[in-house]
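Why this split exists: single-chain examples teach little about how molecules sit against one another. For that reason, every record in the complexes split bundles all components of an assembly together and asks for one structure covering all of them. Below is a record exactly as it appears in the raw files.
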Amino acid sequence: MSADVLAFWFLAIVLVGSALAVVLTKNLFHAVLWLALALTGTAGVFLLLDAEFLAAVQLLLYAGGIVTIVVFAIVVTERLVGERLSQTSRRIGGGAVVAGGVLALLLNAMRGQPFPAARPEMAGDLTRLIGETVLTRFVLPFELLAVLMLAALMGAIYFARPDE
Amino acid sequence: MEWLTPLVAPFIVLNAIIGIVTYVTLLERKFAARMQSRVGPYRVGPHGLLQPIADAIKLMMKEDVVPTAVDRPVYNLAPIVFLVPCMLIFATIPFAPGLGVADLNIGILFFLAVSAMEIVGLFMAGWGSNNKYALLSAMRAVNQVISYDLPFIFSALVPVLLAGSLRLSDIAAAQAGLWFVFYPVVGQLAFIAFIVSTVAAENRAPFDILEAESELVAGFRVEYSGMKFAIIQLAEYAHVVGASFLGALLFLGAWAGPGPEWLGPGWFLLKAMFVFLLVTWVRWSFVRIRVDQILALSWKVLLPATLVLLIAAAIVVVWRGTPGV
Amino acid sequence: MGLQAYLTLAAVVFCIGLFGVMTRRNTIGILLGIELMLNSVNINLVAFARYSGDVTGMVFTLFTICITVAEAAVGLALVILLFRVRRTVTADHLDLLKG
């Protein structure tokens, strides 16, 4: 078994295991920590796919950003009112059936498709390629994204500001 | 034994870093003592030179007290989760041309991304301790980290723009002619912004409201003792040292200096210690400021200023035609 | 490892996230599930980009990561607002529109 295959299986186990923990664990704070592990695992998968830049962005924005915001939300909504921090699930059976059905559907659609098994050589530095593509072919979506981020920022501040 | 080769460099760097970090504590204590007209550690070994080792042994021998109400898995894992990113940041730093663990082509981004992970460990410690002081401290840490990560990143991106590369060894090589700290106007301002946001990101005085001995006891580490406490301390100092190395690399020309080439790592270490002492000097010279002042400084001054600086650096690069000095 | 392995992994994570969204009672828990789903989509995008030799998918991933962060920020601001108004973040209790 080559190092690549080994790394893939390791990351796959970490990713699926932590994802299951996110949706099954009772303690909401633990769920967030498992999510952080899942997101870090995804960054590892990106590394396996030669996308170092995306792996770094993933860590920076997700693990550093989202996890922080979520923890903040938990503290503000649960911990400070002194409630016991546990959460329950409902309709587990139904949920499992639907999720399993979707999974079966996806895997069935994938079966027998002619997927490439080998990767084509990518010319040059992928990070540079991503940067150049963003600022030439996708410059308009990029600018729109900036507007969206600004709108989201203002929206979040508007919603969460204290009442006067 | 072929498979051992890739492990040699990380092993050497890891141990060297732990050694440096241990002795940096002595450096800081001596420096602080001088600033306050004291002598500092003097008893253990000549001029207190064995003090860090004595401290380490003492901390290892201490009883590990675990309060009953803690969230055990989180509480026990937190120091490790805190330590790992603080050690990983050294992975991309080249200590001399071609001498480092991994000279990634996204070097600086890796550094920033990994040091952003540190907050997860900090929050685990604060939450897992199940103590209101620890939790308050962790909340303040989140506030501060969100606020100061952006100026930190923006000021670190100025040398990236000037050098035209994310790879740390390229940034160092680009300063062969002129260190970026001497780059007219842009360089000095970026260096000041970098130092201020480093001090804040390290949670050191005057930005140390999250440990604030007088109100929060010791912040997120109040329930830790013995080895776990030692690991948290080690991680914090490692982070400071890592940021000092980054500062020396981004602004002070890394291994450039007079003398033969093999002196390079020595110069680099010297410059990193200079940045470290700068940060220490700030720590022991200014009083702690309030939460709202800290947030205002970041969002109203540092963030707009670094953004303008970044744009200015971009304009300079475009005007000169090519990146690099 | 072929493309199929990555797609299967992403599909499994997606369905786990879906399960979380459907079964969680806590609004924050639901948001965690959504994050997992978006995350698995990113794996798909990067895998397709790498195996087709076209960088477009990676650029798209960059965009989705940014949008996800914006979504999380607004979503959690809503949760905080909700908590302030109704003192609860349990999705089952938020049934004002029920006839």
